[in-house]
User: Fold this.
Amino acid sequence: MNDAKRLLGFYAHPDDEILSPGGTVAKYAQAGAQIEWVCATRGEAGEIADPALATPENLGQVREKEMLCSAQTLGIRRVHFLGYRDSGMAGTADNQHPQAYVNSDPEEVTPRLVKIIRCFRPQVALTFEPWGGYGHPDHITIHKHTHLALQAAADPGYHPELGEAWQISRLFYPLLRHAFFYALRDKMAARGLDVSFFDQLEERRKNGWPDGKYHCVIDVRDSFDRKWAAFQCHATQFGPDNIFRQLPKAEMAELLTREYFALAWPEPEPGLLWEDLFAGLK
Ligand SMILES: [Zn+2]
Assistant:
């Protein structure tokens, strides 16, 4: 039996792996953990920061490469692309596309995820919190499918031909806290930069996961360089105008020294606070 630490991320787009869990992923990979990642789409509806990098027709292929560059940089050993189409931001025409991930049938997605879970047998899984950080339809969809699949994977009666039942030990929601955005805004304002992007912060704070509700904090100072290098892989998404590229690397490092995780399953004991996603696991 493989007794390595195994971590499986369930995400929607190339680049979802960076901001909230990237330092942690790099840290565990460097310490010898095995890490695999589900990416439901290839981010076909994303930005094209520079027309020299991609066209709307080949953006999915370009972003697949960007994801693989990021995975290699962080130490993710395998990315499972599910091949659905990026559904775009809420309320856009991309939502209606028949192949859009938001329109996928859970009856089709669940067994595919179950197969991955039963084959890899992770002790710890990661996915978005219920609002997906900012309400992106694909983030919300992968959140729902992750819960369905983890439950189904543990049920020996569910499609036994997909592998032996596997019960994970913990599911976490990596958080990009609102406090991070306020701090980023303040640092940018101090430099006289445009901070109009942050006008929607209150809305985000109202709908999003509460900043104070976390159960594990990981110090990622030592892996920030890898996280930052992985971020650079996603060139189509993070052009020179992107808000995460306005400050020098050293200042961004100061804002991102810790990563925060809420324990989604099992139900956390009051006051629980770990410094390791695998704390106490055999
Ligand atoms: Zn995303």
